[in-house]
Amino acid sequence: MLFGVSPGLRVGIFLTPNIVTSLARKLPFALFPSKSNSPVLGLLNPANEFLCGARLPYFPMNEEGLNNPAVEIPGGLGHTTWGGMEAGPGMFYRAQVVDGEVHRLGGEALRAQLSIVPVMADGKRIRIGSNVVTNAAGKLIDHFDYVVHTAPPMYTARQELAQPARSWSDGLSACYQNGIESAIESGVQVLFTPLLGAGARGSPVDLAMQVAVEAMFSNKTGNLKGGVAEDFVVLFGVQEHKLLRKMAKYMEAGGQSVKPSISKI
């Protein structure tokens, strides 16, 4: 399902159990007639500010992240189980989040690229909403050409009182807006992204969707430095039909559908 957002920018939604290994290179690119048979593909990866991936075998999730259907889990695995073992209540295995899968597939070659990103005084390499771009490395090259590593803000229940806190939504919007700009500057033509913030960062799905759609239709996204590249496409991968339908409704409120549904890949 593709929506015209602004001149040169289209946004799509498709079903996939795992966006990192979603067979991106096998998408029906007849949907994008102005592109070659091999468009440059990128992945917007929700990383952490240290760019260290998910170092531990398992780690805590936010209270709001429990049973969150937007978490990208490879192979249809349960949220707290893996291979018959349990991570425990409120815990993620590293393979249950996009960044964990990116680092697993990217391996040492990806870690080598990230290790040269300068470390700031507080030990972090990037700030919330900013990003760094690497070449796809290791087994990632089977799926993408570039990876845009961005740092979404953490969501907590206290922020619901601000519905949501402007600093949180601004930070999440910046992940999309700055990520798209960096992808365009790197030559990416199709950028794949999960629903940022709704996994290990703990945002309620509806809020994460709202911010994502607002970011796509914002003036900043439509007026990026140098203008949006011709026919640039952002593709959101979601795991469930109900999430696809709900996000499509958000999109329809702000844009016009221009293509039929993309089948499950």
Task: Please render the helix and strand layout as text.
Elements: E1 2-6, E2 9-15, E3 41-46, E4 58-60, E5 81-82, E6 85-86, E7 91-93, H1 98-115, E8 131-135, E9 146-150, H2 166-185, E10 190-193, H3 205-217, H4 219-222, E11 232-238, H5 241-252, E12 256-259
Parallel strand pairs: 2-11, 3-9, 3-10, 10-11
Antiparallel strand pairs: 1-2, 1-12, 4-7, 5-6, 8-9
Residue share in β-strands: 15-25%
Number of domains: 1
Name the poorly predicted regions.
56-96, 255-265
Name the average pLDDT: 77
Tell me the Rg in angstroms. Answer: 17 Å
CATH architecture: 3-Layer(aba) Sandwich
Question: Looking at CATH, which topology would you report?
Answer: Leucine Aminopeptidase, subunit E, domain 1
Taking the alpha carbons of the first and last residues, their distance comes to 13 Å
Which key phrases capture this entry?
two-stranded antiparallel sheet, alpha/beta, globular
